[in-house]
Every structure is written in C-alpha cells, then in structure tokens.
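Homework help board

Subject: predicted structure for assignment chain

Our instructor gave us this sequence and asked us to write out the predicted structure in token form, then describe one feature. I got the tokens but I'm not sure how to describe them. Can anyone check?
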Amino acid sequence: MMKTFTRPVWLRKKMHYSQYRTLQHYFNKAQLHTVCREAHCPNMGECFSRGVATFLILGDRCTRRCRFCAVQKAVPLPLDADEPQRIAEAVMRLRLRHAVITSVTRDDLPDGGAAAFAGLTALLRSRLPALAVELLVPDFQGDPAAVQAVVDAGPDIFAHNLETVPRLYESVRLDAVYRRSLAVLSAARRAGCRFLKSGLMLGMGETSDEVLHVLKDLRAVSCDFLSLGQYLSPSPAHYPVQRFLLPAEFEEYRGLALQLGFRHVESGPYVRSSYRAADYLLPDLEKQPPAVMEQPQGETAG
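My token output:
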C-alpha cells in the first residue's frame, strides 16, 4: 500500500499573489515556459511576486521518465527559433540581474540541446553584459563536446542536479546514471566553468550516510554551490515522499556541506535548485549595478 503523509506545519507555505497573476499572463502572452509552473514549484507564488522566474527552454515536453518530476513526458515539438529573443525581452522587462535557464531533457536532439543553451547565453551576453547567467542543464547523455559548447558560451554558473543518491536512481531517475551525471560536472570543471552547482532532494528514502557520500563526490569534482530541499510528490502518480525532514536536519546538512568546502549552500524544506539563485553570487553582484536596459517607449515591466 502506498504511503501517505500529512505535511507538517513548516511545509504549509503561504502563497504570494501580488504579481503572480500579472506574470502568469505575461508568460502566456509571450509564449514562454517556466520550470516554476511546469514542475509545480511550491515557491512559484513567492518568486513571481518578486519578479523572479526560471526559464524553461526547448519546449515543455521531456524525453525522460523521472518519477519525481511534474514536467510533461511526451514526444517533443520542433524547436522554436524565436524563443531566445522572447526570453531576452522577458529578462529585460523583468529587470533581472540573475537569469536562470533550464530545459527539459531532449534526448531526441544530437547535442541534447547544448547549442540552444550556448546560443541563448551569447544573446543575453550581447544585450546585457552585466547579467549573471546560470544554466541548469540536463546530462546531454554524457557528451563532453556538448558540455564544452555550453561552458564556452561563458555562463557564470554551470549547474546539473544529481537529484538523489545512487541507490535510488533506478526508482526515481529511470533513464539517468549517477556516474554519468557526476562526469558531466567533472567535464564542466575541466572545460573551465566559472562556478559549478548541483542539488539534491531529500526525503526519498536516502540515508544520512548516502547523502554524505554524494556530497563528498560533488566536492571531488570541485562543485562550488549546493542546494538541498525537501522532496514533495507532485501527485499520487509520482514517486511518494518517504519522510519529511525537520528544519534542524537541513541546518545540520548545511553545516556539514560548508565544512566539506562548498562555497555557498542553500538548505531547507522549500529550497529548490533555483530558489534564491542570485544569493549564490551575491557578494559579486553587490559590486555592480543591476543589468537593466531601457525598455522600448510605451512599455512597462511585467
């Protein structure tokens, strides 16, 4: 029989609606996808109210069968050639200093979508030179040339999430390989990425020793940044939550990760890989003005 849990009080998050509907309308009108909506992120209302979003490129249909993720699993549509221009416009209109770009996994593409990440990064760099660009990429089926192409585009942060411990990959990340994901991070470091980032969801049935093993693996490939959050099953059809961690446990993991040498760690029940993404580079960003261009006459943000 499937386990069911009642969420504890620290996971009953208050929604923020001040700009939520406005931004939803804007993204719909601009025909843009965000992982915030597609993955049913619990922070969506809060982030949207602050004018923050994580862009989802290469469509909204994923070729993988991960059991933790709410993104649609289906045959992908053809690539949208105008998508990069619309994202660049959205970044300017939202007055972002830190843009996070992620994607569905596109195993149907020869390079897994690496060229799209690189092209969009180049476009954003040309229009907004001071913008911090974070790319949260799939594993490109372990292709080092694809990783090199993304790193060569010059993102500030190259991110790839391990998501869970090796033992649970066959149950949670059916088409992924733990060592392949680690190899992607290692290849990005060798390719010369500025900062390397990864993340885990906890509460899937992992042990503390298994988490420690993964953290050590990440430090072995010189991963700089880490996010640790509580897994929340999107629906009864998805992988079930095995345990809700106490907030104090997340603090313990944060302290342990910092002791292992991570430069910045976000750890908490509602932390996701892109949550408070700008904070990872905050000391650097505080030294420079926001990356904002003048908007066309007659247009307003949001």
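Reply (TA_rk): Your tokens look well-formed. For the description, you could write something like this. The chain has a mean pLDDT of 84. That's the kind of observation they're looking for.
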